[in-house]
Specification:
6-stranded parallel sheet, 15% strand, 9 helices, two-stranded parallel ribbon
């Protein structure tokens, strides 16, 4: 089984866009696929298809009903806040050990030729409870990490900050994926060049907006 933990430099950077495109590509290759978005805040049950979990279910052509949601995203909260705060609004706490065990269990059921995406929430240091952040989650799972960044003004600083935080926790991304932002001050290639100068040892890949199947195939092949 090949699996990736998809995180980002912040919120609304493109984790789900990258994840959904990879899932579709692997399905075209006729591989078994699975995805988890275990923790999700800002969830509106009246707009399931627009949610991150809904987009992943669509990419897998999986049922977008309560059963499908419970499998892919068991911890869903209404408030558009950090997960710990969103859970607290509902009088709940995210059970961290169960979160990790759930991810491991799904990974353990995947066949050797399968592909698994576990999508995080927000950026690398988003709190999950009073003690744990996404960084702890990534460390405990030990999966290859895809760090999604944008091409907007400020992304180089945000990406380098995420890399520095990961280094403090002895984590290194398997790859950085620059997901083209709606508003980009320079061509995406220039963003890659600038970032590569400051992170010469990192593998930096790209995914354009409205990516066609060839662009997604190139990304998947480079992973």
């Amino acid at each position: 089984m090949t699996g990736y933990f998809v995180t980002a430099t912040g919120t609304d950077i493109g984790k789900t866009y990258v994840s959904a495109n990879l899932l579709r590509h692997w399905r075209r290759e006729q591989r078994p696929v699975a995805a988890l978005k275990p923790v999700m805040s800002g969830f509106d049950p009246q707009a399931v298809a627009a949610s991150d979990a809904g987009q992943l279910l669509l990419a897998m052509d999986a049922p977008m009903d309560k059963g499908g949601l419970n499998l892919i995203s068991p911890w869903r909260f209404a408030a558009p806040l950090s997960p710990d705060m969103a859970a607290a609004r509902e009088g709940k706490v995210i059970p961290y050990d169960k979160l990790v065990d759930t991810c491991r269990a799904v990974a353990g059921m995947m066949p050797a030729e399968g592909r698994l995406i576990i999508e995080g929430v927000g950026g690398v240091l988003v709190p999950l409870d009073d003690r744990h952040t996404v960084m702890d989650w990534m460390k405990d799972l030990g999966m290859p990490i895809l760090l999604v960044a944008g091409s907007y003004l400020g992304t180089i600083s945000h990406t380098l900050a995420a890399l520095a935080a990961m280094k403090l926790h002895n984590l290194t991304p398997h790859a950085i994926i620059i997901n083209e932002s709606p508003v980009s001050p320079v061509p995406i290639a220039e963003t890659v060049e600038a970032l590569q100068r400051h992170a010469p040892d990192q593998r930096i890949l790209t995914l354009p907006r409205n990516a066609n199947s060839a662009a997604v195939a190139a990304l998947a092949s480079a992973l």
